Amino acid sequence: MASNSRVSILDYFNIVFEGENGKIESNCKACGTRIQAKRTVTSNFVTHLKRKHQAMYDEFLRKKDVKREAYSSGAILISIMADKKATSRVSTGKRKEKSAESKAEKETEKKVENNTESDKQKENDKVKKKPEPDEEKPKGNGETAQGAQGGAEDGEFQLEPIELPPFEIIVGDRLNPSFFKFQFKNVEYSSGRNKTFLCYQVDIKGGAAEPDGVRGYLEDEHTGAHAEEAFFQQVLPQYDKSLQYTVTWYTSSSPCAACANKLTEILRARKTLRLNIHCSRLFLWEEPEIQAGLKALAKAGCKLRMMRPVDFTYVWSTFVENEEDSFTPWEDCQENYEYYDEKLTDILQ
DNA sequence: ATTTTCAAT
Ligand SMILES: [Zn+2]
């Protein structure tokens, strides 16, 4: 009942993951900042809004007041009860439709190999869309149903399961700008990313290869194969020892131990293949297995580097659907690079 | 203010 009287602060956040015990990982819809909290203790969300987005915070307070007013009125409560079936049906229908829609968009994005970038842009716009202040209609059923989500009086209002990403390797020409900005940000920990992006450039000499080489990106989504392995399964499965390969990657994360070992094996088997990996972040760099894996990988001839600010700019212009927008690396990009570079140097020496 | 690491049907 207490949760029923609370306006949904979560309207301002994209839930990335919700575990048992109500633990929530989310990104602020306005700035993308990762916020962690519990469903029952949402002060982190409120505090973030208050400190970073004053206008949204004010809107939130206004909505909350309207909500309390509504719920304190017995008459309205009764009307909500009377309409409950219809309301919940409509609202879950709406949500289903929404999730089906976004699923469909994901589908198209998966199938898009090199066309219709406008769809991606549409999705991008949708992500950025802010909640509409439509509390002008106190009888508004959508609003009521939203506020009641999580109430779970009889299961009618239970939150839908978090929509999970597809189980496929996503391949594309250029990646979504907001994905790039979030996924490639060289913060210390990659929480909330839950996947790895890999931008690749392949140049092959000695054969009838395309003069400009091949480039694109991979995005792994818990397919069993990580992006690094998927690259050699999907992009460059074949090998001709009479050719010389130069493969350059820009990855959001350094390889895990298993991938590092697989890459080491591949480099040992493909003597004429040069692999350069530039990573935004180091993954679990304190783990001995990771350190050993990276070391072996470097010893097998792989050039391993952390991405510098200039590399982020290069990826933006080369691998991101940038629509001619310029890109300015975030404030602490250089600082974070130095932080990571020091750790990588330690590992590889 | 601090937390935080390529998720699981
Ligand atoms: Zn891996």
UniProtKB/TrEMBL annotation:
CDD domains: cytidine_deaminase. It catalyses: cytidine(6666) in apoB mRNA + H2O + H(+) = uridine(6666) in apoB mRNA + NH4(+). Residues 192-297 form the CMP/dCMP-type deaminase domain. It is an enzyme of class 3 (hydrolase). Residues 98-140 have a biased composition (Basic and acidic residues). Residues 87-152 are annotated as: Disordered. It comes from the Eukaryota. SUPFAM superfamilies: Cytidine deaminase-like. Keywords: Hydrolase, Metal-binding, mRNA processing, Zinc. GO terms for biological process: cytidine to uridine editing; mRNA processing. It holds the Pfam family APOBEC2. Homotetramer. Its cofactor is Zn(2+). It comes from Hemibagrus wyckioides. Belongs to the cytidine and deoxycytidylate deaminase family. This is mRNA(cytosine(6666)) deaminase.
